[in-house]
């Protein structure tokens, strides 16, 4: 098998670290691995397999002989440096929002629209983490009948906001439980996140939605190449460390029997259907703890929507650092070395 020179931009960040785990776990055919980050991380040593690799400063000249460049250092860095990677001959798989809605950049979830990856001009975009998790879960339903409308509420882990957000939750919990503080510091989030939920992710827009909510609307329509789908989202931050959860209500064009929906979800790739009550009355449904560290998207609580004849409701959970980010990007790269793109 051919081996590839791979660069990871943002290697010291939360998603960058998961990139390295997944590249190792999936035995990605690496020839050379180049770790890139900002100037403040230059010289840091990261262990990959049995090798200690020194992090290099990201520059426009960082991509000589690179075949695949994973970008996960924010939209501004992607906009500034991705073009240099492409000019050097690398395929850029970008995890930021920089190029997602560009007409000439495919927005890809391999389980949903892998063929779109073949039409790239050097850059392929990874969707938003919540959009990826939802897209994997609803694709088996969409294949039975087109989806007319999606109402989704997300319950998003703090790690989606970066390492500082994890530390803020940890510190607030310690301050409240151990030090009995009534007021705690919040710097990452607009209000206290410990023992609280915050219906606010990213900036508010003129229409009253947040940018995160509109990402789910716009990206879902592009991924499915179906601009008739109506999507309304409410995105909420919850005091969970890893894995996003989503309550999804779908309206389909045709009525779908619950048995047919279950069958489709159970056989779908990248999904685990966890929705059962055993003879002792024990419930089985997905939670963030179950999904954390796992590659699959978990689906449960499937039921008919009693308010809509053609409606289905489901509960979906996925590790946003893995399938919602790094894993999805690596799967796109696997399409590349398998010759499919």
Outline the biggest β-sheet. Answer: 6 strands, parallel
Indicate the overall shape.
Answer: globular
Helix share, percent: 25-40%
* Span of the ends, CA to CA: 16 Å
Number of helices: 9
Instruction: Indicate the multimeric state.
Output: single chain
Could you write a compact summary of the structure shown?
The protein is of the alpha/beta class and 341 residues long.
Could you characterize what this model shows?
The chain is of the alpha/beta class and 341 residues long. It has two domains: 4-127 and 325-337, NAD(P)-binding Rossmann-like Domain (Rossmann fold), CATH 3.40.50; 131-320, Dihydrodipicolinate Reductase, domain 2 (2-Layer Sandwich). The protein has helices spanning 14-25, 75-87, 110-113, 129-144, 163-177, 211-223, 258-267, 288-291, 322-337; strands spanning 4-9, 30-37, 45-48, 51-54, 56-57, 68-71, 91-94, 123-125, 147-156, 230-237, 244-252, 271-273, 276-277, 283-284, 297-304, 311-318. The strands form four sheets. Strands 5-2-1-6-7-8 form a six-stranded parallel sheet, with helices on both faces. The chain has a six-stranded mixed sheet with strand order 10-9-11-16-15-12. The protein has a two-stranded antiparallel sheet with strand order 3-4. Helix 4 (129-144) packs parallel to helix 6 (211-223), helix 4 packs across helix 7 and helix 4 crosses helix 9. The longest helix is centred in the middle third of the chain and has 16 residues, at 129-144. The two termini are 16 Å apart.
Give keywords.
single chain; 341 residues; alpha/beta; Rossmann fold; Dihydrodipicolinate Reductase, domain 2; 6-stranded parallel β-sheet; 6-stranded mixed β-sheet; 9 helices; 30% helix
């Amino acid at each position: 098998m051919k081996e590839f020179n791979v660069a990871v931009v943002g290697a010291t960040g939360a998603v960058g670290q998961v990139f390295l785990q997944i590249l190792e776990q999936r035995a990605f055919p690496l020839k050379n691995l180049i770790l890139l980050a900002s100037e403040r991380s230059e010289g840091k040593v990261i262990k990959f397999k049995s090798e200690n690799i020194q992090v290099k400063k990201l520059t426009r000249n960082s991509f000589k002989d690179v075949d695949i460049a994973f970008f996960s250092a924010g939209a501004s860095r992607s906009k500034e440096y991705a073009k240099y990677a492409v000019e050097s001959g690398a395929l850029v798989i970008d995890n930021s929002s920089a190029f997602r809605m560009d007409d000439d950049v495919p927005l890809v979830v391999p389980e949903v629209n892998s063929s779109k990856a073949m039409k790239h001009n050097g850059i392929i975009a990874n969707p938003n983490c919540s959009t990826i998790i939802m897209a994997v879960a609803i694709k088996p339903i969409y294949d039975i009948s087109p989806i007319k409308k999606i109402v989704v509420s997300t319950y998003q882990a703090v790690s989606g906001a970066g390492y500082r957000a994890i530390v803020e939750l940890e510190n607030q919990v310690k301050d409240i439980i151990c030090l009995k503080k009534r007021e705690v510091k919040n710097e990452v989030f607009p209000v206290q996140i410990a023992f609280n939920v915050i219906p606010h992710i990213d900036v508010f827009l003129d229409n009253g939605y947040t940018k995160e909510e509109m990402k789910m609307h716009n990206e879902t329509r592009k991924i499915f190449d179906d601009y008739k789908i109506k999507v309304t989202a409410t995105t909420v931050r919850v005091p969970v460390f890893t894995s996003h959860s989503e309550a999804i209500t779908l309206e389909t064009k045709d009525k779908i029997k619950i048995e047919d929906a279950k069958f489709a979800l159970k056989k779908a790739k990248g999904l685990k259907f966890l929705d059962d009550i055993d003879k002792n009355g024990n419930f089985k449904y997905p939670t963030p703890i179950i999904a954390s560290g796992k590659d699959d998207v978990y689906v449960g609580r499937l039921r008919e929507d009693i308010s809509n004849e053609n409606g289905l409701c489901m509960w979906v959970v996925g590790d946003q650092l893995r399938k919602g980010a790094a894993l999805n990007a690596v799967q796109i790269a696997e399409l590349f070395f398998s010759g499919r793109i």
